[in-house]
Write a structure and sequence with these properties.
By secondary structure, the chain is mainly α. The protein has a domain of 103 residues. Helices cover 49% and strands 0% of the residues. The protein contains five helices and no strands. The longest helix has 21 residues. The chain is extended and about 65 Å long.
Length: 161
């Protein structure tokens, strides 16, 4: 029975899904799209800092702290998803706005203090420095060893099987 189930799984056509990086994925942006996202993020972060009085928790040099840029970009994307809607639903109540505050905003603000050290930053001086994160020299040998133990990709099933 187990072999029959495995055989049947092979006969099921798997749909091909093409995924593309969203516009908020920094590492895939070209210069033009990065400039657009920076402009949007800086404007949004200024609004966020002012609206929620986050000056000490998100200092003025936030944009120099790479992990903070990633976190605030994700937070901005979540804010967009919560506060923007189809024209047909503009007047409907939305619980996702509350969820944005409880599930995204405040946990992200708390996390910022753990992922980036703002303690040395001052209004006109930022002490953030990105440090290289080396990969252990044996990573390729380890990967080769691990992959050697996996079965190779099987050929396409024969017609009628």
């Amino acid at each position: 029975m187990k072999d029959e189930a495995a055989h049947n799984d092979q006969d099921v056509a798997r749909p091909t899904v093409r995924l593309e990086p969203c516009r908020y994925r920094w590492r895939d942006l070209d210069q033009h799209d990065a400039a657009l996202l920076w402009t949007e993020l800086i404007e949004w972060a200024q609004w966020l800092r002012r609206r929620y009085q986050l000056g000490s928790r998100v200092p003025a040099c936030w944009y120099r702290h790479e992990p903070v840029v990633e976190e605030l970009t994700a937070l901005m994307a979540a804010h967009t998803a919560a506060y923007w809607c189809d024209p047909d639903t503009v007047d409907l109540p939305r619980e996702d706005m509350t969820a944005w505050h409880t599930q995204w905003l405040w946990p992200t603000i708390e996390r910022l203090t753990r992922i980036s050290d703002f303690s040395g930053c001052r209004p006109h001086h930022c002490r953030y420095h990105a440090h290289p994160q080396p990969v252990h020299a044996g990573v390729q040998d380890y990967l080769d060893e691990q992959l050697a133990s996996w079965p190779p990709r099987s050929a396409a099933p024969e017609p009628g099987r």
